[in-house]
Amino acid sequence: MIRHLNVFLLALTATTLCLGHPCFVLAQASSNPARVPATSYQLTIQLAGTSTGTVLSSPSGISCAPTCSASFAAGTVVKLTPAPAKGAYFVGWSGSCKGTSVCTLTMNANATATATFNISKTVNVLNHIIFMAQENRSLDHYFGALRAYWKANGFADRSFDGLPQFNPTSGLAPLYGPPPTNPGCDPAFPPPNDCTVDSASPQVASFHLITQCIENPSPSWNESHEDWNRVNPYSPTPTLDGFVWTTGHDSRNNVPPYYDTNGIRDMGYYTDADLNYYYYMASQFATSDRWFSPAMSRTAPNREYLIAATSQGDVYPIGTDSGDQSLLTATTIFQKLEAAGISWKIYVSTANTSCASNPTPQCLLTQSYVQNFQWGQSIPTTYPQNIADMNQYFTDVQNGTLPQVAIIEPASPAGLDEHGSDYDQYPIDIQLGANYVSSLINALMTSVSWKDSAFILTFDEFGGLYDHVAPQPAINPDGIKPQDLLTGDICTQGTGPTCDFTYTGFRLPLIVVSPYTRPHYVSHTVMDLTAILRLIEARFKLSPLTKRDAAQKSMTEFFNFNNPVWMTPPVPPVQKTSGACYLNKLP
Question: Can you list the positions of beta strands (E) in 349-452?
Fold first, then answer.
């Protein structure tokens, strides 16, 4: 009787104590207790890493550093947002949270998550910056079809201002437009008449070139300004309607005249069918649709900007006339590097030159544009180890002995610089030039030097080839105006906004290759070639050379130094070299 009473009282007590409260209920004295779900759970956040940050929750409750916790009702969805402190970056979550961004948890149990914040890495991780400018190609001419390549090859679309006929009809701007045109030479005035453009002139539309070799258009001072505005090159308004006329004019006045006397080739472009290596690399790594040459003129002054951020008033090569007889006295980037104790080197190709059998520093200097500077003349005797042939480049790459900064000069005498063909009997094949470049980049990507390097590939100027984006306002580097204009040149007979070094030249192709390059990235920031100098200056804490490079962005937007994607680089395709090469017809 007493035993039965005890069982009854135990059950009654359990029932009474559990009314309205979570508890454990004994169904019978001899059974295991059954758990009633808790009404709340504890969330604990821990911070780790070499730097600091905070974690905030929504709903509120978590606001911690270095450790905090809060209780949330069962079933609550909690969003945790990491916020790195200045100079730090968020590495990622561990524990109950995963990933590298906002974490969302549903509170069905106690949870603990760790947020790791590290000191942010900077451009200082780049221990080797190699840059190279090939010759005379515009952005539309080389990369105008890039968005079509992305669509055909599974790359996400990006806003990229190439040729409008390759833009999508919906989505990211800019959107589809008809192929651009330029007025051509009136057929009523064939050679030996000059190219005549009037109301009867046909419109020449953008078209795909089949030949990998073209007769050279001119990017020189007059032609660049007439490309800007054919009727009024002094105008502040660019019409970009003079490309075909300038090329036809120069072709008819060439001795002997070129085959393409109508300048039609100027509206031609290439695609990935021709430049498969460049299209792949520009898509995997980083490029830009606002990358310009520094000056509206030809190779020599633009390469002087590339080395010293100024041409000191020259718009023509040294020795063209009495206005440009002297070597430049401007300070080069190599002088800055030498003074700061930063290693540097100039690599030149000796193929098809007398230096092939006599690669002395004195001979190598003749293959580098640094010879245009007074200081450059001292390199063979004072810094002979700082100029070398391309064999040394491959050795340095493989041995991990690359300098901190290096320039690779174009292999022009070997016909590998991608320049237009100056003579019909000596065609220059762009596929051979692109293949040569691929050997330089691939050697770096597969070497011990890759892990902390950046290779910047671009072109020195647009080559007179069509581009639909006008030159942009820029800073005169040193206050010097054009000093070697020839009699009859544009800006000797009038004046306008482009008659000084206060505008860039036209757009150029660009590929930035590094383990730290942002994948499939497009920059829309206006920069010119001197931004490469600004990157070097930022990395090695050097002062600017002139007002021009001082005004540039440092190119750091092309990189993610904290989360490198390409430590294991992609495997690019072999550059095609079997394309047709002819100069006596189009396309």
Answer: 387-389, 405-408
User: Could you report the per-residue pLDDT of 287-336, keeping only the tens digit for each?
Assistant: 999 999 999 999 999 999 999 999 999 999 999 998 899 999 999 999 99
Res. 12 pLDDT band, cuts 50 70 90: very low
Residues 98 and 211 in one domain: no
Considering the domain boundaries, does residue 21 fall inside one?
A: no
Q: Is 319 left (phi over 0), alpha (psi -120 to 50) or beta?
A: left
Distance, CA of 112 to CA of 110 (rounded, Å):
7
Distance, CA of 399 to CA of 343 (rounded, Å) = 16
- d(CA 431, CA 580) in angstroms, rounded, equals 10
Same-domain pairing of 258 and 239: yes
Q: For 545-566, write each residue's pLDDT tens digit.
A: 999 999 999 999 999 999 999 9
Residue 254 sits in which domain range? Answer: 125-491+504-558
Determine the residue type at 442: N
pTM over 0.85: yes
Cis ω before 294 (30° cut-off from 0)? no
Close Cβ partners of 445 (under 8 Å, ≥ 6 residues apart): 513, 569
Q: How high is the mean pLDDT of the chain?
A: 93
Q: Which two tokens stand for residue 375?
A: 């200081």
Same domain? 383 vs 310: yes
Whether residue 567 is contained in a domain is answered as no
Q: Per the domain annotation, does 498 fall within a domain?
A: no
Instruction: Please indicate, yes or no, if residue 302 is contained in any of the structural domains.
Output: yes
225-244 pLDDT tens trace: 999 999 999 999 999 999 99
Q: Return the structure tokens found at 452.
A: 């902390």
Same domain, 139 and 278: yes
pLDDT at residue number 7: 37
Residue appearing with tokens 């036209």? 506
What is the spatial distance between Cα 587 and Cα 126, in angstroms, rounded to a whole number? 43
Domain with residue 77: its CATH number is 2.60.40.1140
**For residues 373 and 246, what is the distance between their CA atoms, to the nearest angstrom?**
31
245 with 129, same domain?
A: yes
Q: Identify whether residues 221 and 243 lie together within a single domain.
A: yes
